Amino acid sequence: MTRHGNQKRVKRLNTPSFLQIKRKHGKFFVKPAPGPHPSRFSLPLLHIVRDLLNIVDTHREAKKLIGLGYFKVDGKIVKNKSFPVGLMDVLSIEKMNKHYRILPDSHQGLILHEIPEQESLYKLCRINNKTSVKGGHIQLNLHDGRNILIKVQDPRNPKEDIYKRMDVLKISIPEQEITKILKFKENNIGIIMSGKNIGQVGKIVNILKRFGPKASTVSIQHNGDHTETLYDYTFIIGEGISEIDLPNIEN
User: Fold this and answer.
1) pLDDT at residue 4 greater than cutoff 50
2) N or C: which end of the chain has fewer CB within 10 A?
3) Cα(116)–Cα(245) distance, integer angstroms
4) Cα atoms in the Cβ-side hemisphere of radius 13 Å centred on 94
5) Rounded to an integer, what distance in angstroms lies between the CA atom of residue 50 and that of residue 57?
6) What pLDDT score does 16 carry?
7) Which residues pair with 122 in a beta bridge?
């Protein structure tokens, strides 16, 4: 890696396999910018435009289109070619009337799954943590880097605090209004977001809590088989049925 390009480029051979980078793109590749998702598990917007959607052929053409504001992530225009698009994000290209959701996949790590326009109006966000802030209000820290403030009228009796870590919020985008809470509990539908069983979808049949997230496990039933995964690898996507369209997967 060249010294001057350290922050913006990465050698193609050092990139994660899920980026699906072809040899024709040369020795170096655009590096995801710091943002809402970890760089090790996100897709740079330029890579999506040029390599996955094949809208253009070159880095320069992709950079130009992005700079013109043709692409939205979660309802907001993004002009940064290195912007990290990650799990459950919604990418919209209004001029083409195309919408995609980023999903975990067993073969490719992360994929773009085309969705209907109606589904592009919301996304699912997992609560990774929650904290109390000034005034006794609750701040929900979500998996995609955003924070949502829950106003509490009486801190001594916080009736509004109905949220728990690992629950998933269905929120409108870009308004960020919570329209549904998907509880992290047995019999709900989950998708494995990391690890060797990434992308597998099924009904949660058992949650075994031990001290620490690395020790706690979740058992998911898929096509009659049970798969055990780590607590933190689990992402709830529905109660009974999935809230999001999935690529050729039977729940």
Assistant:
1) no
2) N
3) 9
4) 12
5) 6
6) 52
7) 172
Residue type present at position 236: I
The tens digit of pLDDT for each residue in 103-144 reads 999 887 899 999 999 999 999 999 999 999 988 899 999 999
Domain boundaries, the chain: 9-115, 121-182, 189-241
* Residues present in the chain in total: 251
Q: What CATH number belongs to 121-182? A: 2.40.50.740
Q: Please tell me the predicted confidence (pLDDT) of residue 58.
A: 92
| CATH annotation of 189-241 | 2.30.30.30
Give the CA angle between residues 40, 98, 49 to the nearest 5°: 40
Residue 5 is predicted with a pLDDT of 41
Distance CA 73, CA 99 (A): 10
- Reading across the β-sheet that carries 225-230, which strands appear in turn? 225-230, 217-222, 201-208, 189-192, 234-239, 241-242
Q: Check residue 248 and give its pLDDT.
A: 74
Instruction: Please say whether the beta carbons of 31 and 10 come within 8 A.
Output: yes
Give the containing element (helix H, strand E) for 169: strand 168-172
What's CA 20's distance to the chain center, in Å?
18
- Report the distance separating Cα 13 and Cα 137, nearest Å: 47
